[in-house]
Structures are given as structure tokens and as C-alpha cells.
Amino acid sequence: MSRKWQRSKQWDDRHLRGWLRPARFVLRTFSSVPLAIVLLTSVAIYGTLASVPIGMLALAPTYLFYGLTLVSLTLVGVGVATWLASRGMRAASAGVAWRFIITFLLGLTVAAGSVWAWTHFLWPTLRYDAASGSGIQFFSDIVRQYRSTTLRRLPGMEMSEVEFYAWWPLRYILVLFVLNMMTATVRRIEFIFPNLGVLTVHTGIVLIALGSAFYQANKQEGDLLLLAGTPDDQGLTTPGPFEDSFHDRNDVALWLVQDGRGYEQRMLEGLPRYNPYNLDVLAAETAPGGDRAAPELGNHRRLDMRMPAGSRTTVDSDLRIRIVGYAPYAELQPRWMPAPARSAAGANPIRFIEILSAVPAAGEEVPESPTADGARVVASFALAPRIPSQRLTDIGAPLSVEYARTTPPDRWTQLATPLPPQTHHALLITIPGERYSTAVPIVQGQEFMVPGYTIMVEQILPRPPFPIITPGYENAPSSVAIVRVTPTVADASGAFTRYLYSRFPEISQDMLDELNESGMPRRRDPDPAISLAYLDASRVQVYIDEVVEAAATDPAAPPPLRALLRAPGGEVITINSLPERGVIPVAPMVWIRLGERWAHAESVESPRPVPDRDQDRQFIGNHHQATIAVEVSLDPASKSGQLFPKWKRTLWLPFAQFLKLASEQERRIEVPDGRVIGLVFGKKLHRFPGLTVQLTDFEMFPYPHSDTPRDYRSNLRVSVDGPSATYKEIARPTSLNEPLLVRVPFRPRTDVPGVINMIGRLASVIVPTQYKLSQAGWDAQGWQQTKTLADRGEIPRPMARFTILGVGNNPGIYVIATGAVLMSIGIPWAFYVKPLIMRRRRDRLKKEHAAKVGAVHASAPARAGVAP
Amino acid sequence: MQQSILLFNHIRHLFSAEPDVGVGARVLRSRLLAAITVVLVVGSSVVRAQSAPEGNAHPVTRAVNESSGVNPFGEPAPPPPAMSMAEKKAFADAVDVSPLRDLAVFHNGRVKILGTLAAESLKTVAGRKDYFDLLPIEGAKPKAKKLKHDSVFTLLDLAIDPAYYTDKPLIHVAFLPLREALIEAAVQGGIEGFTDPAQREWWKKQGRLPPGVIAPLLGSVARQEMSTEYQRGIDAVHQAMQVYEHSAANFDMVAPKTAEGTWSHLSALGEQTGAGKAVRELGAAWRAGDAARVNSVITTLAVELPSINSALYPTSARSLERWYNNTRPFEWGYWAYFLALLLLLLSFGTGRKGMLVAGLALLVLGLGLHTSGFVARCVIAERFAIQNQFESMTGISLFAVIVSSVVMFATRRWIFGAAGAAVGFLFLIWATQAAIPGQQIEREAAILNTSVLLKYHVTTVLVSYGLISLGFITSLFYLGTYYAAKFKARTAGAAAGGRVDGEGMVEVSAAALGLDDSAPKGTQRVLADLDAAQMIMLQLAFWALGVGILLGAWWADHSWGRWWAFDPKEVWALVTWIVYLIVIHARFMALKNRSLVTAWLSIAGFFVMLWTYFGVNLLLPGLHAYA
Prior knowledge:
The structure holds 2 protein chains of 2 kinds.
Chain A: H1 3-15, H2 21-30, H3 33-51, H4 54-91, H5 96-126, H6 140-145, H7 161-165, H8 168-188, H9 196-218, E1 221-227, E2 245-258, E3 264-267, E4 305-306, E5 319-327, E6 330-338, E7 350-357, E8 376-383, E9 392-395, E10 399-405, H10 409-415, E11 425-431, E12 436-441, E13 447-450, E14 453-461, E15 480-487, E16 496-501, E17 509-515, E18 521-524, E19 531-536, E20 540-546, E21 561-566, E22 572-575, E23 583-587, E24 590-598, E25 601-609, E26 627-634, H11 639-643, E27 648-656, E28 667-670, E29 676-687, E30 691-702, E31 709-720, E32 730-735, E33 740-742, H12 754-764, E34 771-778, H13 780-791, E35 802-808, H14 813-866
Parallel strand pairs in A: 10-20, 27-29
Antiparallel strand pairs in A: 1-2, 1-35, 2-3, 2-29, 4-5, 5-26, 6-25, 7-8, 7-24, 9-10, 11-12, 11-19, 13-14, 14-15, 15-16, 16-17, 17-18, 20-21, 21-22, 23-24, 26-27, 28-29, 30-31, 31-32, 33-34, 34-35
Chain B: H1 2-16, H2 23-43, H3 85-94, H4 98-101, E1 104-107, E2 110-113, H5 114-126, E3 131-137, E4 143-149, H6 151-160, E5 171-172, H7 176-188, H8 197-206, E6 208-209, H9 211-217, H10 228-246, H11 274-288, H12 291-307, H13 316-327, H14 329-350, H15 353-381, H16 389-411, H17 415-433, H18 446-449, H19 452-496, H20 503-513, H21 523-559, H22 568-586, H23 594-619
Antiparallel strand pairs in B: 1-2, 3-4, 5-6
Helix pairs in contact in B: 1-2, 5-6, 5-10, 11-12, 13-15, 14-15, 14-17, 14-20, 15-16, 15-17, 16-17, 16-19, 17-19, 19-21, 19-23, 20-21, 21-22, 21-23, 22-23
């Protein structure tokens, strides 16, 4: 106990008596070392809870138990062996050295043997096997359920690491620790030269704490996307556009735009990060049966975040915005939502189709006479007959279903054409001029003649060779026959290649040998002189057709139905009248059944959660793969709200990394009164205060002899934006570990005392409007693509289309750095310099004492001599 | 975006379809390119999220080089194998591949020697640095004799005669459940050699399966719900099969013309060049089993290849790499440390000076081997070799042994030498014998390559980890001494009915501490000295770790724009530091036995450090992907 601490306690005892006793208790508590240890331990526990998943923490007792078994076995083995050996050798009067050698080596051997025995005999029994449940694992349910869930990820918490560490419990702990340290320093440590080390360390910690508080309050951090300019005539990069803002790295916002008035940013404070909320928000309105979203964890959790308009809103104030759902890691997929049809002509009917199966599951017996009534629904899907790409589906390779509306008679006849047995592919050929019509079985590579033409089957493909881009048919599946048609008569037009889609004969095209101005083969509609249709009979094809009268006006009235079943090999079964809920057998013990029909439906997007195993860990918790459900409604008190009192619209919004490139992620909502609202979900945008940044060039430096990046360099130009004279113009590169600093230069004033300027100069280094631009991302794909061109000498050098810079303002970092330096030099002083000083003092005191004693002894006889 | 890429690719194709264009066409092309760039930029969605700065991860490991697919040694013969095992062994013994062993080859981002490539390839394929055939021996139970092959021979054989290995136990399937699943699938498929239960058990024990069995079955053993280990097992087998099937792609052995140029594949050698002829002849002679001709061609090749662009062909680095491969300094190093530790401990117990001198000599020998291995690795890798898990382990232990040796000679307390030997032994055996990532010399993460400050940060932190390890060992000595004395006192006291000072133990530790005969003896004195020793280490560790963390924060602020991100690695480094902060402050508390508490906290701190060092890297995602 230091003397100062004794004095402090004596002072307490003298002054803090009576009703001041609690103050004495508090003062003593805050002066105590155990409190510091408790608080430090709390920080360590807090850090553990923040970073280690609950499931992993729950594993600790299990591993402790495993370890104890190993240690116990080893200790017991070694203890018993060495004790016996020791006794034996004592009895044999062995020397100490030999006793030690034998005991030591025996202990080592027994320890190794114990570990071996544990590994081979005990460990296989102890080890927990999740599949069989054998072995020992405490809290296995918790381990499994919270395998990768940290405390801060639980529903109700939903905090990022930074948010969790900025949460009030840790703040209080750290504030208490600093108070504890300051009190203990003042009351226990003498302010003397040898204690300079500990005083420096403690001062450093206080500075770090103060600097961190300032830092925390003013910190900005984000990503700046800089686009490159268009290459010049020489193929060299030109400077890109100026950027005056960057996206925050953590905070998210909803962007709203109405009728081209510019984007308005509304903060999404308190948005979840890790758990799904209300994924089925559209379920009440969307398709029933198998198309309904699977019940996911979190469907039951509700979300209601109101997004009120700010004072400078650019969106009409009668539009009410709420966030009603959140999917942390999901893909948006289209779903159908029933809606009232405005007219029969504009209706988009939907038919649900069910696949029934009586095929027994593993271990079940084969039913004697299977029927559709007793079969189970194994799949269900919706088809939209008015949208070509949505009117058919492939159920794996062997079966496809098409649900059409008012199929033209010619087409129905084609589909119903029987083919010779064992035919898998066929061409239906009609030459009107020759009154020639035939069905020809074909195989790839086959060549044959018809009147006036030679036909060569170049390719038969199960999928289009490139995606169909015709509107309405986008990405639709269809087998394709590519045939080369060569006229054999002199006056006929030239040879051409015709693409025949088995599903969509209406979009067949002829590709001519001549090239267009783009260097591509010229295209035209099919030559009417020869009609070709491709029938794919390689698998089971079901065609169902709504036979709608031209005069029908009620879109809700179910139309009559007919069906065709084309079996592999050419056989055709025709069903002229198919009732509602009718069943079509498609294979032994497999049927197709008509399901519900909606008169009109609209397509909406809803989230499909990505399974845990397919998630990229770097995108968890930062919204990058998240979607939010936004509900837009009208204020009932507004004019439009009174006109459309029940109107509201909910849609799911995907995350957009950069607002500038959010065209694919932006969604629009049309209000019944004609207003259109655009919505984007992304990161909060910060505007630089009076400066802009421009990318003038970019370069990647690879490792020797390879394309692996070793460094990246963005050449930047920082310009002063507007009348502000706060910053200086800079033209400099930034690369890995070489950030560009945009400082606020200090301009001393002549009209104030020097000390004010000195304070101003010191303050200028900690202002939060200074930025550090560091290389954070680059356009690897664009660089690689253009490098290929550069390697071929077609452009002078590779180029990137963009660069991404990390932006940080680091307020008060120099205060923190000063504290760090004080700590770094204070510790060795406390550990090594102070003991040295104290030893020297002690030695000096010893010498002085010895000299004094010597002097006393030397003077003693004289004194004795003088004594009376 | 997909359409943008298609458009880009399409127009790029158009460019490539014009082999001879003039200036006007080039200008037009540039304009077109500009238009494409605008399209791509405006419609781009490849601007992906940046959760960690670019350059933060290690370069992707490529077990197989990209190549034209042409086998430089000619097309291999299809199965069945042309040679029996005995014939192959005889051929292998007759062929001398040693002239090829230190030829340079560019693989996985760096220039290395063929011997290294062979060892690495076989490690990937067979799970060991060389391959052996298993010649069946007649008997009731399946037994086999091992026929070992040189790794360079096997590498060439895989490229020239892969058919030989289709039914040989080549592919390492390390994960037992996956191995069992493959064997079960082979049984179900009725594959010959797997029908008999004894045969199945034999294959299970081998740990390696034939590629001809794995190839058709690997897809069938993938499960809907796979554990991470199972998935990793499948990935490893996939990679092994890749190397087996495409090892010929890895012979990028022709030096570039310029320093920036790329190394060329052997297949790029002209048929009329000396080396080109030799490569083709090597393949033909190898397939014919003509060992004499093979040896002759190998000699030619070993002369011809270095003569191509000889100015850029590495010389001394190849010799050093060969020395590093042959000497295996880290393996020998841990043996030296182990013996040093054993002798030092025995000398402490027996007081024999001879043992002490021998122990110290072995410690110095271990340190020499360790240092030479570390330096050689730095030279070969062309960087400070502390940038992956393996290298940091060799670095930690090296720093620990150096510090302990310096402190030992400065204070003449031999216990520091024993602690250093223990740390050196434990870390080196762990690094070399366990599957620690980074054993192969590879390129470092770009972020590490471009910062000197970061090297100081990493080095300081690793030094602190070394000191923590030394503190841990010293604390173990303290605890051992303390509890042994206590145990001895109890047992002796119980027998004698009184208190005994544990004299034997005093002698042991006194020798370890280098106390002279005149020093006062007694358990308390020994424990006090051991306590002082552990405090020396822990205080140094505390300081070094604190400075290391602050250097990291400085670097992070400089490079990433934020000094502290609460990344798990940062948090756990802080937690580790807090443990030692508690150790320092616990010394000021009114505890019954401060030294004992310190020793136990040192033990706890060591395990926290291990978690920070390994657990956080392997189990918690964060920015320190390169650590």
C-alpha cells in the first residue's frame, strides 16, 4: 500500500464521516484495483459476447469436459507411475540424480501413453456425432440452433459489431473504468519522477478515451464510386465525372423520387440486419397452393417502421410510407397476385396446374390400382396463357406443360399431327405453291429434298442457342431445330437458315447469308413460299387450350378447355373437352390436374430466402443481399385518399450498392391518381462539404509474370466545389497503403493573439471535415476484358470502368495517437526505468546509511573520549 | 448487366474477326469501345459490395495452371496400363530425374523449382510428398509391399502415363466418412477390388483410392445436407483429381523474354528447337520404357531449358530452394529443440553440467536450423516470411527462442533456455506435422505486400505471442514446482508428522535458475525467482502486444481510413491484452499468493492468445483474412 493511499484513506476517515459515509464508500470503490479488474473483465466478456456465436460459447463446457478427461487421465497416470517409481527407487537407495532421470522419463512416457490411450479409447466414445447423436455434447440444441448467431444478431438486438460496441452497457463500463483509473491515479499514485511511467500510461488511456468519444460522435465512413470517362480516340482513359458525395458504410436509407423531382433520402434507422420479418407480407394477396411462399422462420415477426416526410421533402406529403418487412439475405422472385381486371381484353388470366403422383415413397408398397384421387400433389405452378414466356413450363427433362388461349386452328392441327412410331423429332413441311404438305421425322445432320428445296437439319437443341429477347418471349424455354434451306430451282431466292422453335412457331426467323451493317447475318420473317414447323416428340408434352369466343366479355367466366397429350415417340391423345379440375394421365401413376383459375393477375416480386449454406459470409449483416417491403398508402384526409380510401401498395425492394447505378434495383409504384413514385433501398449518402473528386486514370500492377494484382492505383483530382475556399486543389494518386489525404489547411489570422492561432492550428488537425481516400475496390472484370484487347494490340492498354475508394474523416485521430504514444513509452518506463531508479536510490540510501553508520562508529570513541 | 456482357463479348468477337485493320478502323474501334464502356458503366451491376478492402485476401491458389490443353510430352496412352507395378518400379529406378529437379517452373504465382512443384502436386494428389505403389503379397489377408517412387518421377509419370494410375491408390481421401461413402458406392457399383469385405477394409486403411474409381462416383456421394468437413473433403478430392488429370498444364518452364513477360509452357517450344525436340522425345522414350534414352534426353533438357532467355533464368535462388527442400530445417529444428529441452530439464534435475552444456549446444543448433530455414524461406518467397499461419508459427517460435536465449545469457538463468526450447519444439512440430495452412511458399496478400508499417505491426504482435508462449512455459514450470513441492511437503509431512521444505525440488529449480551455491536455498526462493522470470516475460509480452495493437491501429487508419473497426481479430487482441493488464494490476491487490494467481492468469492468457491466433482466423469472419 502506497503512502499516498494511506494518506488518502486517512483523509477519508477524517472528512467523510456521518452522512458522508456513502461518498467515502464510492470514493474508495473507485480508487480500488479490484473494481478495475472487474471492469476490465467485463470488457473482455462483452467482446466475447459480441464476436463469438452463442452456439460456440455453448460448446465451451463440452470442450472443457473433454479437456478435463484428458488432463485427469494424464495426471493420474503420471502421478501414480512417478509415485510408485519414486518409492521403489527410495527403497533401492538410488541417488537423487538417477531418481530424477528415471522419474522424469517415466512421467514423460506415461503422459504420452495416456494421451494415446485417451485418443484411441476414450475420445471415440466422447466425441459427439450430430448425425447419430452419439457421444457427449452439453446444450446440443443451443449449439445447433445458434451455431453462427452472436448475441447481437438475435431478434430484438439486430446490431452490427460497431453498433453493439457503441451500445450503452459498454459505454458505461468504459466510463466507469476511466473514472476508476483517474480516481485511483490521483488517490494512490505519488506524483513523483519515478512514477512518470504509470502516470503517462494512465494519461494516455484518458486521451484515447476522450479522442474515441470525439471520434465516435463525428466519424463518417463510406464508399465513393468514381466512374472512368469514356475512352478517347486512341483508346485511352479520359477523366470521369466529378463526384460530390459518398455512401455511408453502415447507415441505410430509402430513396424516393416523384415525377422526376430528384431523390429524397429518408433514414432507415432501426432496420433489422440478421433476421427475417414478415416475409409473407404479400401472402394474403398472392397465389394459393404450391405457389405460396414456404413458411419461413420469421414470417410471424411483424415490422412497422414509419417513414415520415421531412421538412424538405420532394414527395407529396399525402403519400404515407412504411417499412413492413425485411429479408436479410434473399433473392426476389416473381409471384402472381390476383387483381380486378379492367377489361376482358386487358385481362391476364392465370391457371394453376397440379402434378399428382401415386408413385410410392421409399418403403411404401406399390398401389394395386392407383388413381388420381388417391395421389398426392408433388408440384404446383401457375401459367399465364397470354404471356408466351409464362404459358409453359418444364417439369424436369421428361415433361413439359403448355397452357394456351385460343390456339389458332392450324397450330392445333400441327400439334395434333400423329408421327410415325419411334419418332422423336419431326418437321411439318408445307409448300403452298406445290400444294405439298408432309411430316418428316428428322435427326441432326439429316439432309433431304422436297419440291424446290433441299433441307439440311443442322442442329436440334433442347434450348435456344442464345436467350430469346423478343418481347413477351424473354428467356422462354423451347427446343429448337436449325435447318438450312437451299432452293433447288434457279429463280428462287437464295439459301437461308431457319430457326424453328417447337413452342413458338410464330417467332421463327430466316437468317440470310448476306451481312447487315453490323456485320451480322441479315434476318427476315420466314419466307412464305415454304412453311416449316418443328415438332418435338422426344418427351411428354401436354397442351391445354382455352377456347375463348371472340365476343366473350366476362373475363371471370371460365372458358371451355381442350387438351393434347403428345407422348414420346409420336403418339398423340386428344381431349376435346376438359372439365374444370379435370385430370390428364401423363405417365403411369402420374397425372396433371387443373387447379384454380384467376381471371386477372399481376406479377409481384417476393423474397426467397437464400439457405445458410449458400450465403456469402461477407454479405451478412450489412444489407447487401437484403430486401425490404415498402408499403405506400394515401393519407385518408387528403383528396386522393378520399377518392381511393382503400388503396395501398406493397412491394419488395432489393438493395442497391450505389444510387448512381440503381436502375436495376429501383422499383416504381403508380398511384391511382396517376402519380408515379420511384423507390430505391441503399446506403445513406453523405455530401462532401465543398469539394468534388474525379478519377483521371486507373492502373493495376500485377505480381511478376502473372495477372494477380499486387497493387492498384487511382489517379484522382480533388477540386474545390463552389465558393468555399476551405480546401486546396489536389491531383494525386491513391493506392493500397497510400491513401490521399484531403486536409483543411489552417490559415492563421492576423487580428487575433498568437495563442488563439496556436489553438486554432491544433484544432484544425482534429476537425471532422478532413477526408482520407483509400483504395478499396476496382473493376476486375472490365480490366480483364480490356486486357485481352490490349494483349491483342487492339487498344493501347487495359482500363477500368470505375474505382471504389474508402472514405473516412477520422476526427480526433491525433488525440488518440498522442494517447497511444504516451502509453507505448510509459509502459517500459514503469516496468524497467522505475525499478532502475528505485534500485539506484536504494543503493544510494544504503551507501549513505552505511557512511552515516560508519561516521557514527568512527566518532564513537572520540565521543566516548569526551564523555565525562 | 448480362446483356451488357453479351454485347461486350459480341463486339469483342467482331474486333477479333478483323485480323488486319488500318488506322481508320482502329479509330472507329476506339469509338466503339468508348460506346461500349459507357453502356457497361451505365448498366453495370458488377460494382459489388465492398465489405473488406480489395487486396485484403491472399491471391487465389491455383493447383493447375491455365493452359492450352496441349500435353508437351504427346498424347498419353489410354488405359489399361502398359506397365506392371514391378516394371514401373524397375523403370523408375533406372531413370535419373535429378538433373530436372532444380529446373525453374512458374506455378501458382511464383517461380519455383520442379522438385518443389512435384512435392506440392503430390501433396495435393496423394496427401504426401512422394508416391508409393502397393504391390500385393499373396496371403490370407490383403497385404502389400511399398514400392516408393521419386516425386519428380511421379510428376512426369502423371503427365506422360496417367493411365498407369487409374487403378492405383493415388487420390488421398482424407475425410473418413467421405472415404467410406466412396467405398460404399464402389461396392454398390460392383467395382472390382471392392466386393470383398477384407478388400474394403484394406482400402479404408490406405486413405487413398484409385482415380478410376473416384471419377465416376464422386458426384454420387455429394449429399443434400453436407457438413463443412464433408464439403471440404469433396473439394479436396476434386482438386486432387484436377491435378491428376491436368498436371501436364503445370510445366510452364520456359523463361520469359522480358522481366514483365510470362513464363511459357513446354508445349510452346518449337518442334525444331533443342528443348522442344527433347521434350517430345522424353515423352516418346518414357512411354516406350527406354530408360537410357530418357536419361539422355533429361540431360539435354537440363542444359537446354536454362539456356533459353538465360538472362532471366534464376540461378542462386534455385540452389537455395533445393537446399531448403532437402534440408528440411524446421523438421530438424524441432528435434534439436526437443532434445535440448529434455537435456536441460534433466540437467536441472540432476545438476549435471554436462547435460546443461549439451542442452545449450542443442538449443543453439536448433536456433541455427530454425533461423536458416526462416531466412531461406524469406529469400525464396522474396518477402518477410511471416504472412500466413505456417510462417507466423515459425516466426513466433523463432522470435521466442531468440528472446529467451538473449535473456538467458544476459541473466544466466537457464530456465529461459528451456522455455525457449519448449516453445520452439511445440510450435515447429505443430506447424510442420499438422495441416497448418500456408506450408507451401505462396504469394502474400497485396495489402501486406505494399506496407512496411504493416510488417512492423505483424512482427511486433508475433513477438508478443512468442513472449506469451515463453511466459506460459515459465508459468508451467512455476506451477509444476509449486504443486510438486506442495505435494511432496504433504506426503512427507504426513509421514514425518511435520513440515518438509521439499529439498529435492529446491535443488532442481535452483540449478535451472542458475543460482550459485552461496545463494540461500529454499522453495520460496526458487518460486520467487520463477515468479520473477514469468513476470519478465509477461511484462515484455504486455508491452509488445500493446505496441503491436497500436501499430495495427495506426496502419488501419492509414490504409483503411479507420483505426479501429471492432473486427473480431482486433477485439480478441484487445481481450488478450486485457488479460495481461489484469495480470499487471492483480499484483497490486491484496492476494494470498500473487505469484500463483499470476501463473494461472498466464496459463489462461496463453489459451486466449491461441484463440486469438487460430480460433478467430478459422472460425470468425473478419477483415484479417490474411492473418
